Amino acid sequence: MDFNDTPQEAAFRAEARAWLAAHAPAHEMPRGVRLDDADEAARGRAWMRELYDGGWAGLTFPKALGGRGLSGIEAVIFAEEEGRYYLPKGPFTAIGTGMALPVIARHGTDEQRARFIEPTLKGDLTWCQLFSEPSAGSDLAALRTKAVRADDGSGDWIVNGQKVWSSWAHLTDWGILVVRTDPSVPKHKGLTFFVVDMKTPGIETRPIRQISGMSEFNETFLTDVRIPDANRIGAEGEGWACCMTVLMGERLGSGAHRSGVEPLIEAAAKTPDGHGGTMLDDRAVRQALAETLADERGQNHFQARLRTMVSKGENPGAMAGMIKLAYAGRQQKILGLGMELRGLDAIAPLPGDSFTPDLQYDYIYSVVMRIAGGADEVLRNQIAERVLGMPGDVRMDKDVPFDQLK
Ligand SMILES: Cc1cc2nc3c(=O)[nH]c(=O)nc-3n(C[C@H](O)[C@H](O)[C@H](O)COP(=O)(O)OP(=O)(O)OC[C@H]3O[C@@H](n4cnc5c(N)ncnc54)[C@H](O)[C@@H]3O)c2cc1C
Fold first, then answer.
1. Is residue 404 part of a domain?
2. What pLDDT, in 10s, does the model give residues 199-221?
3. What is the β-pairing status of strands 146-149 and 157-167?
4. Contact 168 CB / ligand 1 (< 6 Å)
5. Which of 118, 176, 348, 371 has the smallest set of CB atoms within 10 Å of its CB?
6. Final residue of a structural domain among 221, 237, 253
7. Structural domain of 284
8. Distance from C-alpha of 71 to C-alpha of 11, rounded to nearest angstrom
């Protein structure tokens, strides 16, 4: 198999690289400091606008909807090149382009596509994901937030319930929301999918304070929230199919943006080893870096393959979970290696060292990637059953109406 770019891909890469060199540096985030959430969100919007104006937003979306109609391979090439810069690509941008837009493109109406896709690509609309609940995380289909039709004949829906871990819900414009509309059928069948304006009366976000000092995610309470039927994505009771499209986008997008290993190689090459050389002269260090770089490259190729399947209309199914599973574990390993390479400086960075504080933060944060977007254990179950064809878990609640579950 030839892993090198074809001549067309090489030309595309050169074009992307030249554009990024001219536009990305002005948007890079400062190193070694944690920005206020609102500041980071504003920078994310500005970078999205720059991408849109330059013709680099929504590469795989049709031109008529503001995208470029390119293939998954080109999207991966652009992500690789973009990953050379430290850009504000937080979840507020990934949830919009990687989760909300694929579900609207695939399950929405023409009117919904026209209403949401281009404004999102421009950075005018940002999104949060209102899926998880206090007793529905890995088992998302157990969710209890419910929607019933308003009794005034308007066709509107009235939503009540609570979501949790809603990243950036306090700063985003719209949410993708899954709720139960029919509790009399088994749990996966009674769900319906909506988009909701986060300014709708009855939505209250309460930020959760994290150990890092940040408050990226929230508890979101929905009390008598009125949602017009025009904001329903897909048919009533077909919400689970929409959720699968969202989760596939989330998993396929894992790690698409930034190389974890290359900055470490650069840092090792600059770190004195105390014997007149650098850390990169140490064979064990070189081997560890080479192994993780090989893992990363392998994943990038696999990711390109799956994205190409998606851009051809094929469904990679549970294979998308392999990307997320491999990425989360590797990221934790790479960052742990980075901390080891810094030695004592990893615990107490020297004044003026802007690399290590980012590394410390990313190292602590790497743990959450093993939970967010599907926990390791749950993804392993799915891969075992649906990719490897191993026997399924015992699921007592599969065919039981939700309102009869104990
Ligand atoms: C940083 C971060 C951001 C997030 N952002 C969002 C967001 O924006 N919107 C949103 O809706 N949600 C968000 N989440 C929530 C995330 O989707 C859930 O945390 C995740 O699905 C796991 O659910 P849970 O936390 O309820 O854990 P649980 O489902 O309670 O799992 C707890 C543990 O049990 C294990 N486990 C559960 N079921 C099984 C099983 N069948 N077999 C084996 N082991 C099992 C899990 O692997 C895990 O280790 C975010 C989470 C994190 C960490």
1. no
2. 999 999 999 988 777 788 899 99
3. antiparallel
4. no
5. 348
6. 237
7. 245-387
8. 15
